[in-house]
Write a structure and sequence with these properties.
Strand order of the largest sheet: 6-7-13-11-12
Oligomer: single chain
CATH architecture of the largest domain: 2-Layer Sandwich
Bound molecules: flavin-adenine dinucleotide
Structural class: alpha+beta
Number of helices: 9
Number of strands: 19
């Protein structure tokens, strides 16, 4: 390859080639299927390697993004300078700690964690079964659905700071609120999480998960690339209902549109750019504000 950057050269020279990709399209790693190349993407297989990568990045003073399954990220059309550390399918593993508690590594999907808990006859993660992100992303976002939320079941979490140091945080220290945790301010990275669940019959748990999945498939445009709910739930209303009442179902800018099936979803109809999605979200937010004087804020993380 010609014109390799100093950062790319550094990672190629100092880390195993299996875990380093240069000029890696973000569209391959985001559920929107949008985003130009990351300068360097790394896939650390364990916490020790992640720590080493973070220490070197601090010395090199490069911008670092943490990526889970990319199901709540809008990556830019211009490409991402610096480093993207992808944890999905990297930091993996699940442990049954005792009667009611499991520990799950950050790179496992929420779905796999929920299926594991169900197999052990542990209830509490049914809501998480259809959330397509990782446990790390779910903890960072305080992901939730159908009345359940990560904050209701999380006991503690091992995090790593940007200098590569590990520590354990309690659920209280996470300062959870709607689709938010303190990690947004600290930049700490989820390594693993301990969930406190309740004993229940496995078949009953599986039946609930199946029912919730059927609700999801019936109401959400799962056949099109998206990042789930495009907007946070505003105080005093539901984003999808407001968008629908503003007559914006099907509203389209470039390749991005408000789903005709679920007004809370922005979907990529094919070839959408990050610019299309940003313009769509901003136009929808303005139109809803004009009609209802309620300002919708994006839930999707715009990089
Ligand atoms: C079809 C569809 C349905 C969805 N349904 C739901 C739903 O019902 N409920 C819901 O809450 N969400 C839903 N989402 C959104 C999304 O799945 C969640 O927000 C999920 O928690 C994001 O996890 P992720 O691993 O994909 O994170 P990413 O999208 O990769 O990242 C999201 C944010 O988390 C940060 N992050 C990721 N991993 C870590 C880590 N280990 N440590 C620290 N920070 C990290 C990233 O830096 C980024 O800021 C849906 C998305 C889709 C596409």
């Amino acid at each position: 390859m010609t014109n390799i950057s100093a950062l790319q050269q550094y990672f190629v020279d100092n880390f195993p080639k299996e875990i380093v990709k240069i000029q890696e399209p973000m569209s391959k790693h985001t559920s929107f299927r949008i985003g130009a190349e990351a300068e360097v993407m790394v896939f650390p297989q364990n916490a020790a390697t992640l720590s080493e990568i973070l220490k070197q990045s601090a010395i090199l003073d490069c911008k670092v993004h943490i990526l889970g399954a990319g199901t709540n990220v809008l990556a830019p059309d211009e490409g991402l300078p610096g480093l993207v550390i992808c944890l999905k399918d990297c930091l993996v593993g699940k442990r049954h700690l005792d009667d009611t508690r499991i520990e799950v590594m950050a790179g496992e999907t929420m779905t796999k964690a929920a299926v594991y808990a169900a197999g052990l006859g542990l209830s509490g993660m049914e809501f998480a079964h259809g959330i397509p992100g990782t446990v790390g992303g779910g903890v960072f976002m305080n992901a939730g659905a159908y009345g359940g939320e990560v904050c209701q079941i999380l006991e503690c979490v091992d995090v790593m700071d940007r200098k590569g140091n590990l520590r354990t945080m309690t659920a209280d220290e996470m300062q959870f609120s709607y689709r938010r945790s303190v990690l947004e301010d600290t930049g700490d990275i989820v390594i693993s999480a301990v969930f406190k669940l309740a004993k229940k019959d496995s078949e009953e748990i599986r039946a609930t998960m199946k029912e919730l999945m059927a609700k999801r498939s019936a109401s959400q445009p799962l056949d099109l690339p998206s990042a789930g709910s495009a907007f946070k739930r505003p105080v005093g209303g539901y984003a999808a209902a407001l968008i629908d009442q503003a007559g914006l179902k099907g509203f389209q800018i470039g390749g991005a549109a408000i789903s005709t099936k679920h007004a809370g979803f922005a979907v990529n109809l094919g070839g959408a750019t990050a610019g299309d999605v940003r313009n769509l979200l901003s136009a929808v937010s303005d139109r809803v504000y004009e009609k209802f004087a309620i300002r919708l804020e994006p839930e999707v993380r715009i990089w």
